[in-house]
Amino acid sequence: MRISLPRLMSRLTSPYVAPVFVGFLAAWRYAISLRSFFLWFSIQLVFTTLIPGIIGLALVRRGWITELHVPRQEDRTVFYLSVAPCPIAAFLLLYLLNAPVPLLLLAIGYMATLLAFTLINLKTKISSHAGAVSGSVAAFFFMFKSAALPTLIFVPLVIWSRLALRQHSLGQVLLGTLLAAAIMVSVFSAYHLSR
C-alpha cells in the first residue's frame, strides 16, 4: 500500500510522534550521563506518546472517539480531557527527579498548550499537528539556539500536509501554529526573564 506524501508528513508530525523527537533531543541535550538521558527521555516518551496513544486506542475501542488521530472536532474534547493528566504527571515526575529546567518548561508548555487547545476546540477544530510542530520548533530555539534553524522547515510542511489532506482550514492550521509557538515562547521567556 502506497502512502501519499501529505499523509506521510502528517503521520511524521503527529502529536503522538513529534514529542518523541522533542523528548529525545531535549534529553540528549541536558543529560549528564547515559542513565539520565534514558530516564528523561523515557518519562517524556511515556507521558507524551505512549499513555496518550493507549488512551486514544481505549477511547476508540469504547466508541467515544472515531479514530486515534481524532479528526472530528466533537471527539477532541473527550480526548483532550482524557489525556490532560499526562503532562501534569510528566512535570511532577521530572520535578521530583530533579530534571533539568528546560525539560520542566517543556512539560509546562505541553500543559498550557493542551488547556488552550481544549478551550479553543469548543469553537473550532484547531490543528494539533501544526501546534505540535510549531511548539516543538519554538522550544528548540531556546534549547539549541541557531542550531534549531533547520527545524523551521517542518512548520510549512505540516501546514501544507494538513491543508492538502483537507483536515483543517487555513485559519485552523495557522491558529494551531501560532498559538502553540506563542505558548512555548512565553513559557521559556518567562523563566529566562525571572532569573
Give structural notes:
The chain is an all-alpha fold and 195 residues long. The chain has one domain. The protein is built from nine helices and no strands. 38% of the residues are buried.
Largest sheet: none
Mean pLDDT equals 96
Topology pattern, helix = H, strand = E? HHHHHHHHH
Number of helices: 9
Brief write-up:
The protein is an all-alpha fold and 195 residues long. Helices cover 75% and strands 0% of the residues.
Write the layout of secondary structure elements.
Elements: H1 5-12, H2 18-30, H3 34-62, H4 73-83, H5 85-96, H6 101-121, H7 128-144, H8 154-164, H9 170-194
Helix pairs in contact: 1-8, 2-3, 2-7, 3-5, 4-6, 5-6, 6-7, 6-9, 7-8, 7-9, 8-9
List its salient traits.
single chain; 195 residues; mainly alpha; 9 helices
